[in-house]
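Lab notebook, bench 4. Still working through the backlog of constructs that have no structural model yet. Next entry is a single chain of 350 residues. Request: give me the C-alpha cells for it.
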Amino acid sequence: MKTLLYNSKIIETYIKLIKNKYGYININELLNFANMQSYEIGDQGHWFTQDQIDRFYEKLVQLSGNPNIAREAGRYAASPDALGVMRQYILGVIGPANTFEIINKVTSNFTKSANYQSKKISTNKVEIIVTPYEGVSEKPFQCENRLGFFEAIVLKFGLGLPQVKHTECIFKGGKSCRYEISWSKSTALYLKKIWIGTVLLLTLISLLMILTNHFATLELLLPLFGAIIFVFGYAIAKHEKNELLISLKNTHDSSDTLIEQINNNYNNAILINEISHASGPHSKCEDIVANVIQAMENRLDFDRALILLANQENNKLVLHGGYGYSPEQRTLFNAASFHLDRPQSKGIFT
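Model written out:
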C-alpha cells in the first residue's frame, strides 16, 4: 500500500487557482489522470500519495502550459478566494514571524512528507529548514510550491512580497531545503522607532533650554513638542489597531467555520439516530427507505438524493426512493437498468 502524504487542501488550492485563472482547463480530465475524485478534494480529511500528486502536476503543466504553476499555486493560498485554506491554521497569530515560529504545526495539516524547522534571525527574518522523511521522494515542483506558500504567509499580513533565498536544496545535492525569508517591517514598527528617537530628541532639547535658562522659549515650544508626540502616538496606535484587526478577522472567520462544523456534526448525529429508529427490526423495507429519505432531506445539505438497492438476483440496482427529482426524471430512473454483472461496467454504482 502506497503511503498517503499530502492533504487534499493542497490540491484544493490548485483547483481554485485553475478556476480563477485557467478556466480553459478541463478539471475532470486532470483529476482522472491523477486517479483523484472531486469529492476527495472537498474532503479535508483526505490524503493523496506521491504518485497521485506527481501525475496531477504533470498533467496540469501540460494543460496549462505554465511550468512555474507550482509556485503560483503556493502563493495563491494568500488570495481572498483561497484564504480559508490558510486562515484556519494561523488563527489569531499576529505577524509572519509568529506564524513561521509554528511552521511545523501549520504544515503538518498539509503534508506528512517532511519535517519543518524554523529559526528566528531578526524581527523580520527567519530561516526555515525542510528535511524529507526517509523513504519520501519529493519532486522539484514541490520545493517551488513551498516557496510560494512561504511567500503567501507574508502576503497574508499585507507586508508585500518577501525576499526568499534558497541557500540549500535537496535537488541540488543538499541534505535539506534551507530558506531564508525576510520581509519589510510593519509601518507601526517604523513609526515606533521614529517616535522613540523624536521623544529623546525633544527631551534633550528641553533639557538644554532649561540648562541655558531659555524658559520662555521652552514654554512656547512645549505645546508643539506635545503635539508632535501625540501625532506620532496616534499614528502608531492606528497602525497597530489595523494589524490587530487582521488577526481578529482570522479568529472571527475560524470561529464561523467551527460553528458551521458543530452544526454539521449535530445534524449528522441526529441523522444517524433517526436512521437507526427507521431501520428497527419490525420495519418494512419500503418504510425504512421512506424514513431514511425523509431524514436525509431534513438533515443533509444536499438538494437531491437517491437510494438504490440490489435486486434479489444481485445483478441490478433498483431505485427505491429519493428526493429532489422531477416526476419525469423519476420515470427515467425507474426505466433505467444499472447492471452489476457486466465485466465492462465501471463507475460509482458498480
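Notes after review: Residues 215-278 form the longest helix (64 residues). The radius of gyration is 29 Å. Flag for follow-up if needed.
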